[in-house]
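Appendix C. Worked example: histidine kinase
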Amino acid sequence: MHASLRIFPRSLQGQMLLAVALALLVAQVIAGVFLYRAATAHGEAEVVNTLAFQLIADVRNPRSQWRAEADRRRGGFVERRRALAISLLDEGTRQRRERAPDREQALADVLRSQGVAVAEVIVLAPITPTERQRLRGGRPGNGTSIVLAGLREIPAGDWRIAAHELPRFTGNPLRGVLVQTVILYIVLVGGLALLLRRITRPLALLTTRVEQFGGSTDGAPPLAPSGPDDTRRLIVAHNAMEARIAALLDEKDVMLGAIGHDLKTPLTALRVRIESVEDEGERARMAATIEDITRSLDDILSLARVGRPSDPLERTDLGALVASVVEEFEDLGEAVALETTEKIALPLRATWLRRALRNLIGNALRYGNDARIRVSREGEAPRQWAVIRILDSGPGISECQIATMLEPFQRGEASRNRETGGAGLGLTLARAIADQHGGTLHLANKLGDSGAVEGLVAELRLPL
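Step 2, the predicted output written as structure tokens:
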């Protein structure tokens, strides 16, 4: 998947921040739900208690003479509103309206708890704008809703009326949750990001150091411990391990140099002494044996040292380097052809890469009698590759043996004769050189149109 389309972060810091952010979001959503339900229950309780207060007051304080006189001075507004409310509670009218059974039950319970005899309780949901205006005595109001309740103490008794005007803006509890969430994200996630950066930054430096470590510190100072105590201990342990590995590899190089010198010196002496052998055929066989031992020793020493090259990377034209190796074989009269090439410049260790190409081309000539080389650039930025393909016309390799052919001392022909294939280190050394450059070596059979094997393809891929 393309990096820009990746939603889930891959870094430790990104995953931790995402986990905390999601957990905080879930917690705030749950808190918002509870707050909303609590606010809704509180609003319902306020409506029921207000209606109950009005009805209880009407029951315990019947309409007095001075209230009737006040209503008369107001033009009978109270009586008109009462008549309208009673008409809304009429049997035929209320059947066509939305009732609130939960409010009715809650209101009846409150009234009974206060000693009011309840025969029937009706609560109508918010009524139409026209009726709201009439209940307000013609005042337009502010667009709020009115809940109307009626109480009968006996089945045939008069209605006692209560009305509650719901406030238009009661406040939104979710708004406070949203503000709280934003503040928590800024404080908690921001603080956690700073803490994780303090942890992951030294880990990133340590990762880079491990990736660049090739068995030698190259004179670079040890990585300075930083971050929390656990990270510091990890960096200190890595520095100690790095020093031990470098010391062991240095000791190995000294040992290999000594082995090479101790073995090559008697081989050189033997090469001189066989000149005294009179039988020319026997002398040639002895010289070939010594040469075979020398080459095998060179391959083994090269394979042991390929992981710690002494020569630096130099920017090189890969096409020109491949062409020079092909010319070497052409000068020897070998059937080698450079079919396609491109001008590709990249950092290389030219000596080692020439060694890998010679081994691959030599194998193609030995088993396929010819070698065709192609150099191309493949892939798209930022993942581009320089690809070298060596094709031959040989019998190929059995599919079950292709993977093992890259292992040391593995070869298609069982003998260790240099004329029929050598010690089986050529492909292993070529793969190690590819790994040294961050690339890969892959073998595959080349199939013809009929599906038959028509040769082998060795593909050396180097990252650009």
